[in-house]
Amino acid sequence: MTEHGQCGADGPDPWVASTEQAPYQVRSIRRRTPTIVELRLSPPAEPLAYRPGQYILLEDDRAALAPRSYSIANAPRPGGEISLLITRVPGGQGSTWIHERLAIGEQVLVSGPYGSLLDDPASTAPMLLLAAGSGLAPIRALLEGALAESLHPELTLVFSARREADVIDGQNFARLQRREPRFRFIRTLTGEAGLPPRGRIPATLATLVGDLADHDVFVAGAPDFVIACAAAAEALGTTRARLQIEAF
């Protein structure tokens, strides 16, 4: 997640395993778009227990910078490795440190998990996932978890990007779509000419997915994006009880 705004829903977090700080080592730093890098962190000892869709607080091991909140971008894995998608924020101390100074092999401190963007693994409803930018982080984790454990008969991910260079994991999702009958991936561009579909998700959602009366819907990204997508999903029939959002 980016380093500004509130993570998770309002009110107390319904699922917090531990809030103690734990050391993690930086395994890789990979540039995913001109403004987003992906960190892979691994625990030297006991891994963090969390659920897909939750977030952590990250800080340097000298406590020189205030903790920043970032969604975990993968479902739990053997060994406890976690990934984070970090957007560079102009003037942001945390994202500047990560993008310019953090190095592979260094240690960081992680605490959590926090957040209520959680799937019901017993749900048998189709699942719709909407994301833009680093909002893909919790959505990608939810998708991984749903593919591994859930009963959702259909899983659709719609990702909005300004240009093709900003489409994170597009090829991976395309390959996943070919081998996983339940999964459909749709990317839409908003800022340059390219192959269809094009346009912002709220304006094109009816064409892309149609009626949502029986869907579980998850949305993550910048506040304006989340608000507009939520309104569009409700207009297509989803109920607030089936709609979960995370704006940051």
What does it look like?
The structure is a single chain. It is built from five helices and eleven strands; from the N terminus they run βββββαββαβαβαβαβ. It has 248 residues and is of the alpha/beta class. It has two domains: 22-114, Translation factors (Elongation Factor Tu (Ef-tu), domain 3); 127-247, 3-Layer(aba) Sandwich (Rossmann fold). Helix 4 (201-209) runs parallel beside helix 5 (223-235). It starts with 21 loop residues before the first strand and ends with a strand. The relative contact order is 0.17. Residues 1-17 have low confidence and may be disordered.
Which structural class do the helices and strands define? alpha/beta
Low-confidence stretches: 1-17
Beta-strand residue percentage: 25-35%
Number of domains: 2
Mean pLDDT: 90
The tally of helices reads 5
Name the CATH homologous superfamily of the largest domain. Answer: Nucleotide-binding domain of ferredoxin-NADP reductase (FNR) module
Portion of residues within helices: 10-25%
Q: What is the subunit arrangement here?
A: single chain
**The CATH top-level class label of the largest domain:** Alpha Beta
Predict the CATH topology of the largest domain.
Answer: Rossmann fold
Distance between the termini: 7 Å
CATH architecture of the largest domain: 3-Layer(aba) Sandwich
